[in-house]
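Field reference: sequence -> structure
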Amino acid sequence: MYRLAITGVLVIAGCGRVGYESVESTDPTDPDPVQITGCEALAPIEGTRVDISPADAAQLPAIAAAAQPGDTLVLASGTYPLSEPVVLSAQGMSLRSASGNPSDVVLDADWGITVVDVEADGVTVAEVTLTRGDVLLRAGSGAPSNSLAVHRVRFVDAINAALRVNSVDGAADDGVVACSRFVQTDAGRETGCQLGDESTMGIQAQAVRGWRITANRFDGYYCAGNTTARAIVADRGSRDVEIDRNIIRDSFIGIQLGLSETAEGDERVYADPPACAAGGFVDFAGGTVCSNIVFRSSAVEPRVDTGIAVWQGCDVTFVHNTVASPTDVPTFSSIEWRFGNTTNIEVINNMVSGELRARDGDVADDTANIVLDDPDAAFVDLQGGDLHLTADNPAIDVAVPGTGCVNDIDLEPRGSAPDVGADER
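Structure field:
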């Protein structure tokens, strides 16, 4: 390990062709060949570079603890076994691989601990793999960690959550998770679901504000008991979260906003509460879910309960999403909205294969959505993960324009006669 002062610019390579495409994969933890692309480069890095090799793995937590504001920890290719978390506690510091390939650097906790803990503002974690931890990346647990940037990180196998953010005191707001890969493998599911009491999650955002979750892939967030596994969940007073251009495959619940019908005492209290709460309790407020694909790839396993849901919230828009399962393979709901105190919900221009479901007395603006009769015929290859529209898909040119969801899953602009769902043919 050595330190090198640098003033040059590090540009993160883009993810390739704009959009998403089917490609061959040699990654044994990558069961789905669909790749989301169109990622922008990270901001240039200037400051002190700290080069680290796998031989330094035992010292990595201490090296991180000694980092100064703005330092960049650059990890050489290899596996880094960890017996204690890597705590990133210097403002503006970064952790990334030397090669720029996320699979080249593996931080492995062997199921014992949190892998990386963020305890400073402006931290970046990029182009590494985090695996086999209770939580793989955590923020907001002990110190301010606002403006966290997570870019092209591979999260493989967690007990409770791959990424957990808790901002109940307003200390972990305005983060971005982009171009990352969240996977629960068969082996990881067996261990993680057992130790995590059937509650494995990809992103768990509690009491957060101003986050964006964009252009990520999620696979296999389900357990045998099918109880609380979710790819993305935001609750406990979270607000103003944008979720766009993600692909979610085989998760018990894909995206869930809000959980509790009534206050449980651990929700965030704002000095400027959302107007839609009208002075009362709200578990989630003011978010948009746009141009996401949530799908089930198999008629056998896993059971998929709900694609996209809001349970207790207000001012939420679900627009131009595609939620699909193979023909004659039921799910409980494709999109659902729940509880009578959930208000101002818009469900617009979504293409689904199952129910658009109102639960427990809730009402939503349900406009220009399409429920497919034959999902397998509507897409290029539903079970293979290519949910681009076929030429005779009934969604073409029939969506309501001007919804604010201006780009599709491939970053292609929507025109005056847009298509329903996530893809613009």
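Note: The CA atoms of residues 41 and 236 lie 32 Å apart.
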